[in-house]
Amino acid sequence: MGTRRIVFENAIYHIMTRGNNRQEIFCDAMDRAEYLHVFYQAKQMFSLKVYAYALMPNHVHLLLETPLANISAAMKFLNWTYVTRFNYRHMRSGHLFENRYKSKLVQKDRYLMSALKYIHNNPVKAGLCDKPEDYRWSSHKAFLSAQEGLADVGSTLAFFDRDPVRAAAMYREFFKLPLPDSEWALFDKSRSGIIGDKEFRARCRSVKKLQPVQ
Known about the structure:
Layout: E1 4-6, E2 11-18, H1 29-46, E3 49-55, E4 59-66, H2 71-89, E5 102-106, H3 110-125, H4 140-144, H5 153-157, H6 164-176, H7 181-188, E6 193-195, H8 198-205, E7 210-212
Parallel strand pairs: 5-6
Antiparallel strand pairs: 1-7, 2-4, 2-5, 3-4
Helix pairs in contact: 1-2, 3-7
């Protein structure tokens, strides 16, 4: 029957999409801006909740929630639309992404916060910048300024405090603490999986609603 993805309403996923043969998937700033534009279209069309993102040279990290249990349809639209526009702009054809994006189900507690920290620290870890706030192509700076946009900053910061000013300050303090190596490894693994406590993992595995891997 092949591999299936676990899907359910309000599931949270850490998504990683990599370039085919690890090739770069953005040639310039225009490509990156186009990807974010298509991502915003996907957000609106599929009612996604976006917690974080980071565009790396040859892959992307997304942290999103699917109120409608439609991760496969949303990612198919995002990847297919971006590749179509990328190929047209650069007068090329063929695959750009690996056939399958990786997805990890994330429990909505400290694991969600760890995922946020992992994604926003990825450009630093990769040597693309010295500090997360120096990187243009992630959602980190929006959190520092509590600015709404592609990322649903307000509802995410609400995990820290209901007051947006205090929440942004708490986020900055939270970000100063390093992510333990053991938790970094959970998100850094290339294969799909489930990140959460024992009860959460068991609950996810008991879900009957599955979608084919795309």
